Structures are given as C-alpha cells and as structure tokens.
C-alpha cells in the first residue's frame, strides 16, 4: 500500500523553471524586492530566485544591510545561545557525508545515566540553558524510551545555579505516535534537517537505511505537527546540491507547513558541509563559497523574516562574527559533536579516548569567549526560554513576533537571563562588557513601567533570585 506521506509539495519542476525564468534581475526589480523585504512581509519564490542571482558587491552589501535591519526590527540585538548534546552516535544509515554513517569506522558510544549527568553538569557549568539533543538513528541501540528517559534526566539536573530549561530534539523522522511521546516529554523544537531537497541527490547520498526514503524524511514535520508539536526546525546541509535549488526547496517546505498547519518552521539552520571521518570534501562539487553562504543567509532572513536563523560552530569564529550581522538570531557556543565530549573537556582530557565526533567544528571558542565577542559588538546574548514555557509556541509565537510586542517580552527576558549568566558564569572581562550592554539596552526600553520593572528584576537577580521571566 502506498504511504499517505508523499512529499509532493516539493515541486522540482517548478523550482527549476522559477530559477531559469528569473536568472536576471533589473535594477528596478531589485529595488522593488528590497523595498518589500524591508517591510518584513517575506518574499515569494520568484523574488527569492531573482535575489539568488545577485553577484555584484553593491547589491550584495544592500542585501546584507537589509537582512541586518529586518533581523533587528524583529529580534532586536538579541542572539539566543545554545549547545548541542550528543547522547548516542549509533546509526544504521549509510550517509556519504556523515561521520556517523554506519560504515564510517567511528567509535560508537551511547551515554549511560552517569555519563549523561556529567555531560549536563558540564554544560550547565558553562551557563547553558538550552540544548539541542542529538542522536544517530538506531532503534536497537538507542530507542525512543532511552531518549525520553534522557530528556527527563536532563530537565531534572540542577547544577551551579543552573538548569536546562529547553531541550530541542534532533532525531530521525519517525511516526505520529512517537512524535506524540516526544511532545508529551515537553521538548522545545523538533529539529530535522532535510539535508537536500533534490530527490536524486538525496537518494545518492543516503545510500541505505531508513533515511534513504525521501518521502518519509521530507514529511516528518507533517507527522510531528499532526502529533501536536508546533515548533519545528528545518535546515539544509549546504554543499550537497545547488544552493539556489535548496533555498527554493526550503521555501516550498515552509509554504506547505504554513498552508496546512497554519505555521511555518520555527527555526531554520544553515549547516555547511565540513570534513568528517571518511568524508572527502573534494568530491562534493556543490560546496558554497563564503560569499554564496552569506548571500543564502541574508536571503533566508528576508524571505522568512520571523524564523529563528541558526548558525553553528561548523563555521570559523571570524566568519561567524561577520555573518551574525546578516540576519542570524541563534548560535551554538562551545559545541562538541562527540558523545561524552563536554565532560572530557572539563576534566582536562584534551585527547578524547574515543573518536566519536560527527564532523569537525571550526569555532572552538568557549561560550564565555563567544559571549565576550557578542557584547563587544553590542549584542545581547540570550538564554531565554520563556516563550515555550509560557505556551507561546507555533502560531502564538509568530503572532507575538508579528505584532512587534516581542520587544516588550523577549527583550526584558533576554536581559534577565543574560544577567544570570554574568552573575554565575562570566569571566571578569565578560562581566564588565556585559554589564555595559545591559545598561545600554535597559536605557533603550521605551515603556517607562517596563524599564522600571526590568531594573527591579535585574537587581533581584544580582541579589540571588533566578529564573525570572515574563
Ligand atoms: N539525527 C541527526 C543525524 O543522525 O544526522 C542528528 C545529529 S546531526 C547534528 C544533525 C546534522 O548534522 C545532520 O542532519 C546533518 O545535516 C549534519 N551533518 C552531518 N554530517 C555533516 C558534515 N560532515 N558536515 C556538516 N554537517 C553535517
């Protein structure tokens, strides 16, 4: 019997035709598209296709500046901080690009309860409050019960004044029933990267295993939403196929979710292919240059203005510090892509005993170094998790973001969580820079009552109160 889950909403012919018909962009068209983008109304496929063809420096810098303004208009100076936590790298899939591929020769490991607690304590000691839980796909070695138990354990651990308050989960495409169980475990966003929207490439790089099934994978968010999960996190692994095709595929996916479930993706991640065990990047002809990568990020911000746009430590510190200005609103910091890597790092073991990493990271700064750098550039690092704890998810979050009231809720919450970070985890240098940022940003709160309330709450935090939010 044919599955009811087919990804017919990804229309390759239409993508190819749109790209072919919009390979040129006149100055008038460019101006009109930019004017629309500045209103944060989003862009359609045709407009996105035109922007993807921009090559000249003048237009590129206008594009970056517009993406910066749209991000700041919606999300202000806030940058959400999180870390990935890998709890198992067992995997039955054979994926050409991935260090977890079943034939990669990597050391396999799954955290036991004690190891999991140590990992979480190490992350909490760095100040983290939000995690992205990562596992390979292997129901025999890492079933859903193990994942659900791990979520429970993670939420229960309190260490150094901190706790993990939101766990986003990145597990393989699964059934509505299993998504219901994840939803009941109070996960934040359900994350699943599409890798590539191009069917032929998808089939080629996912050689065998359940992930080989394009339709099952591409309709995962449909099942997650049917199960009641409202926040889903999309992403493309850039470098597998033509980036222009991928961006339009992402647009079609977002449009499908919006039309069918009333809400598009909550976040979009932009991982770029990196070296991994058994992966030779020279054999991937579609790798993006830094310029193309920046363009993609800025266009996604303008096309889907309300999404949380996530940039990981796959990129270098220098590039991240630059790209953050082109529309990014969430970043990981201090990440380790191996299983058990955080505790090894804290215990001073520089060479992990096992080679369990999925791919290499390039930004190896500690969270405190990343936060220092963000403060120097005037950003507010945010550990806020209030929206999801207050039920502001899915279309309710989008309504808040679109109303502009997000400034009166998220800004104070970001400042309060950042104040916690400064009190509990920051180095002296970061504390000094951070306090400056907080003072500047509080002064900018227009509503008198809100400004006074925030000042009171910040003082309470300095006096020892924790986990205050609106
Ligand atoms: N369920 C996921 C899995 O098994 O792939 C969980 C872990 S993983 C962090 C998430 C993503 O890492 C994958 O979806 C893929 O996009 C990305 N990834 C895999 N290999 C990579 C590589 N060599 N370079 C960069 N990113 C990679």
Describe the structure.
With 470 residues, the chain is α/β, with parallel strands linked by helices. Helix 4 (57-75) packs across helix 12 (290-303) and helix 15 crosses helix 19. Strand 10, helix 12 (290-303) and strand 11 (308-311) form a beta-alpha-beta unit. It has 2 domains: 70-365 and 378-389, Aldolase class I (TIM Barrel, Alpha-Beta Barrel), CATH 3.20.20; 404-462. It is built from 20 helices and 13 strands. It is globular and about 60 Å long. The model has no long low-confidence stretch (mean pLDDT 94). The protein has helices spanning 12-21, 27-38, 45-52, 57-75, 113-125, 144-156, 176-184, 199-205, 214-218, 220-226, 243-261, 290-303, 317-323, 341-346, 367-376, 386-389, 394-403, 406-424, 428-443, 448-462; strands spanning 78-88, 94-95, 130-135, 158-159, 162-163, 166-170, 190-191, 206-208, 232-235, 267-269, 308-311, 330-332, 380-382. The longest helix is centred in the first third of the chain and has 19 residues, at 57-75. Strands 1, 3, 6, 7, 9, 10, 11, 12 and 13 form a 9-stranded parallel β-sheet that branches. The chain binds S-adenosylmethionine (SAM). S-adenosylmethionine (SAM) is lined by residues 91, 97-98, 100, 134-137, 170-172, 193, 195, 237, 271, 273-274, 276, 279, 314, 358-359.
Number of domains: 2
Q: What's the count of strands?
A: 13
User: Which structural class do the helices and strands define?
Assistant: alpha/beta
| CATH topology assignment of the largest domain | TIM Barrel
Question: How would you sum up the global shape?
Answer: globular
Main sheet? 9 strands, parallel
CATH class of the largest domain: Alpha Beta
Rg over alpha carbons: 21 Å
Bound molecules: S-adenosylmethionine
CATH homologous superfamily identity of the largest domain: Aldolase class I
Quote the distance from N terminus to C terminus.
50 Å
Bin the helical content.
40-55%
Instruction: Please give the CATH architecture of the largest domain.
Output: Alpha-Beta Barrel
Proportion of residues in β-strands:
5-15%
Residue windows where pLDDT falls under 50 for at least 5 positions = none
Mean pLDDT over all positions: 94
Q: Enumerate how many helices there are, as a single number.
A: 20
């Amino acid at each position: 019997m044919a599955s009811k889950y087919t990804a017919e909403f990804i229309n390759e012919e239409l993508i190819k035709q749109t790209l072919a018909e919009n390979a040129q962009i006149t100055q008038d068209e460019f101006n009109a598209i930019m004017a629309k983008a500045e209103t944060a109304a989003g862009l359609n496929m045709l407009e996105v296709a035109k922007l993807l063809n921009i090559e000249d420096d003048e237009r590129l810098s206008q594009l970056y500046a517009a993406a910066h303004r749209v991000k700041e208009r919606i999300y202000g100076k806030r940058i959400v901080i999180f870390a990935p936590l890998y709890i198992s790298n067992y995997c039955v899939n054979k994926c050409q690009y991935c260090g977890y591929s079943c034939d990669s020769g990597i050391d396999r490991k799954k955290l036991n309860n004690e190891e999991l607690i140590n990992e979480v304590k190490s992350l909490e000691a760095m100040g983290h409050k939000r995690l992205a839980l990562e596992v390979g796909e292997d129901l025999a070695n890492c079933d859903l019960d193990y994942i659900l138990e791990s979520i429970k354990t993670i939420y229960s651990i309190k260490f150094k004044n901190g706790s993990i308050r939101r766990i986003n989960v990145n597990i393989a495409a699964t059934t509505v029933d299993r998504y219901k169980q994840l939803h009941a475990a109070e996960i934040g966003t359900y994350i699943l990267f599409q890798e590539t929207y191009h069917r032929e490439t998808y089939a080629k790089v996912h050689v065998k295993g359940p992930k080989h099934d394009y339709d099952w994978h591409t309709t995962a968010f449909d099942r997650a939403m049917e199960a009641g999960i409202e926040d889903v996190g999309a992403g493309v692994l850039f470098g597998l196929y033509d980036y222009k095709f991928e961006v339009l595929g992402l647009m079609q996916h977002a449009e499908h979710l919006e039309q069918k479930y009333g809400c598009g993706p909550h976040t979009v991640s932009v991982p770029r292919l990196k070296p991994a065990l058994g992966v030779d990047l020279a054999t991937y002809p579609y790798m993006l240059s830094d310029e193309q990568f920046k363009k993609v990020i800025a266009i996604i911000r303008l096309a889907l203005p309300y999404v949380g746009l996530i940039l990981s430590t796959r990129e270098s510190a220098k590039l991240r510090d630059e790209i953050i200005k082109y529309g990014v609103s969430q970043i990981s910091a201090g990440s380790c892509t191996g299983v058990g890597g955080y505790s090894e790092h804290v215990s001073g073991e520089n060479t992990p005993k096992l080679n369990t990493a999925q791919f290499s990271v390039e930004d190896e700064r500690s969270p405190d170094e990343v936060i220092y750098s963000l403060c120097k550039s005037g950003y507010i690092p945010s550990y806020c998790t209030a929206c999801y704890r207050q039920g502001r998810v899915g279309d309710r979050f989008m309504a808040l973001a679109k109303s502009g009231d997000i400034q009166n809720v998220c800004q104070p919450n970001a400042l309060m969580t950042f104040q916690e970070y400064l009190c509990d985890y920051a180095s002296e240098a970061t504390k000094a820079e951070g306090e400056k940022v907080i003072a500047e940003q509080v002064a900018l709160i227009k509503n008198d009552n809100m400004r006074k309330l925030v000042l009171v709450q910040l003082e309470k935090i300095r006096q020892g109160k924790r986990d205050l939010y609106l």
